[in-house]
Amino acid sequence: MTVPLMRTARRVMMVFGIGRQTADTNETPATPTVQVVLSGQELRSDVPVMQEYGLASRPVPGSDLVVAFMGGDRTRGVVIATGDQRGRPKDLQPGDVCLFHPSTGSRIWLKADGSIAIVPANGKTAATGDLTVSGTITSNEVVAQGVKLTDHAHSNGNDGADTGPPV
Predict the structure, then answer these.
(1) At 149, is the secondary structure helix, strand, or coil?
(2) Of 20, 41, 111, 167, whose CA is between 20 and 30 Å from 65?
(3) Residues 56, 49: contact at Cβ < 8 Å?
């Protein structure tokens, strides 16, 4: 192999690296940056983290990173993918898609059968604004402005007596 071709081959081999994040994400710059250790203990600091439009996350130390190096130049890297094996869901079925929080286990799960499961780790889901539902809502209890449906009685029941709770 000729020297110029060997140089080109080496640069191509150096285009990508897989590493592990070693410090907290720096959110100060417009594009967050991380410190990453690559194979051979190659340490790179202030590596920008590119994320998909409309999605944002803050990787934590120990996260797996895929780094692309422009032209194979190991001083000009950018993180193009992040992951965390420690908290990845293990119960996904073929065709499932899941947005999950690695440390809490909360998830929005788009299942292959077309259903959607929203599973908050703390048992609480908050929605701001009006809610329109075209199907049936099934619940153990309904509370509206402090009034519980299961024990709400009216004073205008049979012959003026209180009504009982819903049946």
Answers:
(1) helix
(2) 111
(3) no
Cβ(65)–Cβ(82) below 8 Å: yes
- For the chain of 167 residues, list the mean pLDDT of each consecutive stretch of 10: 84 91 97 95 96 94 97 93 92 96 94 96 94 92 86 71 70
- Alpha-carbon distance 159 to 163, whole Å? 10
**How distant, in Å, are the alpha carbons of 25, 96, 150 from that of 133?**
39, 24, 21
Domain-wise residue ranges, the chain: 3-83, 87-150
CATH of 3-83, one of 2.60.120.650, 3.50.50.60, 1.20.140.10, 2.40.50.140: 2.40.50.140
Spatial distance between the Cα atoms of 1 and 61, rounded to a whole number of angstroms: 41
